[in-house]
Amino acid sequence: MRIVLVGPPGAGKGTQAAFLAKNLGIPHISTGDLFRANISQGTELGKQAKAYMDAGKLVPDEVTIGMAKDRMEQPDAANGFLLDGFPRNVSQAEALDEMLKAEAMKLDAVLDLEVPEDEVVKRIAGRRICRNDSSHVFHVTYKQPKQEGVCDVCAGELYQRDDDSEETVRTRLEVYHTQTEPIIDYYARQGLVVTISALGKVEEVTGRAMEALKSKVGDK
């Protein structure tokens, strides 16, 4: 099964992608992991990406597309994959279609995680991170620490990252609406999109997603 996962920041794409990939027995291919792997391994594409990033510039589509192509050609992706963060715009979606067509393959579904904008802001702006260990994450509403401002695990100070501020979140949402959301229409014209609500507990959303994919593509 070949799936593209889309949704606004704060929709829980990374969490859902990991659960879905495990349940479906296919690799989870995320843009973030692609960049980190290529940069740490010193690949030519990784060097190009790092040069742009170090200069504070956006990495060109062709570099991202090249990384995705290399990853999708790995043996573990022969029977399918779940793409998270790629394609990010219509140009990348068109390039993905061409890549798959060249291999006589095609996407099976595009899973759209739908979350109201106010909920996205609430989810992200409410996050608090431990200064001692960024893996210790709390939330002012959904996962409150026992003592306000103090990490339950190590007693470190909890803080809000700059990119989690409401202003920054709304800017990220605007970028999503402008650049990424158009791919939903692009894939809808191909009859590939299935939309589900990403509200509720993680396992509820996963169950909803699995049912939607099964109804869309069967037991592929």
UniProtKB/TrEMBL annotation:
It catalyses: AMP + ATP = 2 ADP. It is found in: Cytoplasm. Pfam families: ADK, ADK_lid. Its main location: cytoplasm. Its EC number is 2.7.4.3. The keyword Coiled coil does not apply. AMP binds at residues 31, 36, 57-59, 85-88, 92, 161, 172. Residues 127-163 form the Adenylate kinase active site lid domain. ATP binds at residues 10-15, 127, 137-138, 200. PROSITE patterns: ADENYLATE_KINASE. Pathway: Purine metabolism; AMP biosynthesis via salvage pathway; AMP from ADP: step 1/1. Residues 30-59 are annotated as: NMP. GO terms for molecular function: AMP kinase activity. The keyword Nucleotidyltransferase does not apply. Keywords: ATP-binding, Cytoplasm, Kinase, Nucleotide biosynthesis, Nucleotide-binding, Transferase. Belongs to the adenylate kinase family. Monomer. Catalyzes the reversible transfer of the terminal phosphate group between ATP and AMP. Plays an important role in cellular energy homeostasis and in adenine nucleotide metabolism. Consists of three domains, a large central CORE domain and two small peripheral domains, NMPbind and LID, which undergo movements during catalysis. The LID domain closes over the site of phosphoryl transfer upon ATP binding. Assembling and dissambling the active center during each catalytic cycle provides an effective means to prevent ATP hydrolysis. This is Adenylate kinase. The lineage of its organism: Bacteria, Bacillati, Actinomycetota, Actinomycetes, Kitasatosporales.
